[in-house]
Amino acid sequence: MRTITVGHLEHCQLCDHKGLQTILPLGHQPVVQEYLTDKTLHEPETTYPLNLCRCASCGLLQLDYIVDPKIVFPTNYPYRTGLTNMLIRNFRALADILEKKYKLTPQDLIVDIGSNDGTLLHGFKDKGMRVLGIEPTDAARVANKNGVTTLQAYLNKDSAKKAVKKYGLARIVTATNVFAHINDVPALMANIKTLLAPDGIFVSESQYIMDIFKKLEFDTIYHEHLRFYGLKPLAKLFIEHGCSLVDAERISAAGGSIRVFAQKGKHPMSAQAKKLIAAEEAAGIYDGAMLRDWAKRILQAKNDLVALVLRCKKSGARVVGVGSPARANTLLGYTKINDQLLDYACEKSGSPKIGMFTPGTHIPVVDEKHLLSDQPDYALLLSWHIGEELMKILRKQGYRGKFIMPLPRPRIISK
Question: For the whole prediction, is pTM greater than 0.85?
Answer without folding.
Answer: yes
